[in-house]
Amino acid sequence: EIVMTQFPASLSVSPGDRATLSCRASLSVSSNLAWYQQKRGQAPRLLLYGASTRASGIPARFSGSGSGTEFTLTISSLQSEDSAVYYCQQYVDWPRTFGQGTRVEIK
Amino acid sequence: EEQLVESGGGLVQPGGSLRLSCAGSGLTVNTNYMSWVRQAPGKGLEWVAVMYSSGGTYYADSVKGRFTVSRDDSKNTLYLQMNSLRAEDSGVYYCARERWMNNWFDPWGQGTLVTVSS
């Protein structure tokens, strides 16, 4: 099983500032990585796939990079509505596995 | 619009059974890979099981032998039969779609809550 590790576990960012979230895979997943956003009380929502492609309707302030085992999600100018938990997930192999999540809070 | 709607959650005693449903609209369940993903209270996401478009299935070790995925093509609905339930099976259960060659989860249903407690 591919283990996905996210860091930091949480971060607090001021509105308008940049947030950088990291995800590491225990084996190479190439670019078979997705990021999801989950707001409190809601289902997860797809943000990015292929490590860097924004899903439909996702604002341009969300960007992704990386391949192999190291990935980054960047929120370039944090808005209040970006307060959420963010998960990375690999889809190169079964079982599908998620990171434990990074909680983003607005200062 | 593609949507998934789960139902069937509730309170069940340890050792009991429950069947969850996931109804698709705007998409065809049997032409996609359909997964169940769960989330224990205050915890992260855990993939549980998948039914492939071929009808084959694959399960997480934590539920193998206790949970069964099936579907009813006439109802465009996916099911998760959960037997021998344990307290650690409690949480919100989501269904989610993967497309062939586009293997990320999208869309997700709204989830249904399962509570295993005496």
Broad structural category of chain A: mainly beta
What is the terminal separation of chain A in angstroms? 36 Å
Mean pLDDT of chain B: 97
Helix count of chain A equals 0
In what range is the share of β-strand residues of chain A? over 45%
List keywords for this structure.
heterodimer; A: 107 residues; mainly beta; seven-stranded mixed sheet; four-stranded antiparallel sheet; 50% strand; B: 118 residues; six-stranded mixed sheet; 10 strands; 0% helix; globular
Structure characterization notes:
The complex is a heterodimer of chains A (107) and B (118). Chain A is mainly beta and 107 residues long. Chain A is built from no helices and 11 strands. In chain A, the strands form 2 sheets. In chain A, strands 2, 4, 5, 6, 9, 10 and 11 form a 7-stranded mixed sheet that branches. In chain A, strand 9 and strand 10 form a beta hairpin. Chain A is globular. In chain B, a hairpin with a 5-residue loop joins strand 4 (33-39) and strand 5. By secondary structure, chain B is mainly beta. Chain B has a 6-stranded mixed sheet with strand order 2-10-9-4-5-6, with no helix packed on it. A 4-stranded antiparallel sheet of chain B has the order 1-3-8-7, with no helix packed on it. Chain B is globular, with a radius of gyration of 13 Å. The model of chain B has no long low-confidence stretch (mean pLDDT 97).
